[in-house]
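Weekly puzzle thread! Below is a chain. First person to post its structure in token form gets bragging rights.
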Amino acid sequence: MVDSQQGRRALFIVNPNARNGGKGTDAIRKVLETGGIHLIEANPQGDEKIADVILRRQEECDLVIVGGGDGSLNAAARGLMETGRPLGVLPLGTANDFARTVEIPADPLKAAELIVTGQPRPMDLGEVNGQLYFNVASIGFSADLAAELSEKAKKTFGKLGYGIVAARLLARSQLFTAYLDHDGTTEKLKTLQVSVGNGKYYGGGMSVEQTATADDGKLDFYSLEVDHWWRLLKLLPSLRKGTHGQWDDVRAFGTTELVIRTNRPRPVNTDGELTTWTPAHFKLRRHAIEVYAPPAKSG
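Winning reply:
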């Protein structure tokens, strides 16, 4: 491994299907290479995921640079955790919620400069049924949204695509029953959605909890127990700010482990992708990976 900032070797993985992944990356490459990073182009082959590429080629690199959105980062998580290689993020996706959470610049060129000049710092990951995630895992409305929001819609309409599909889904959404096991207690819920966040932002800028960070050592749970769609509309400003836990029909708390059970299996959305089903066992993976990001704010 190379310890100095100069002469580092990076696996360079850009998701061509990300919203901005198909655009020219020559300027990004120039920033990285001028900064002394030797780029090793790498992409999944066949049925491989990004994590498989990282595991297969770990001895060739000192860090991994992933260009894409939150789904691309999710696909890399296992490889990053198992190899210990630090992650450089190029925000080329639709929402780029993790980058926003850890204050990586939205401009990919500035994000590349951060990889060159910055230092990696430890970040937590969430885990559900063995599936790792950066931002949030949800059951209910958000999972239904992920199922209906096509890659074409995300690439064509960007964040607007979320709103168009969400409005259509909201009109026909119904509450479901869930059983919540946490911290020695079991609770029965009638809910529109339950979410378990590791970071702060998700879904194109919604907030799990206003003070959440990706390195605070806790998962943030909330349950939307609203019985009318218009009530949810009133909640939207608070959901964006992360202050929804103050409402009577929102159950919210922090923890490090919990289980969600449902009467029939329901899909779980992790970082915008449907990856597992209930029953869902959530855990915190403390300081699971390192990420090139601005220094954490004190206090």
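Puzzle host: Confirmed. Bonus trivia for everyone else. The radius of gyration is 19 Å.
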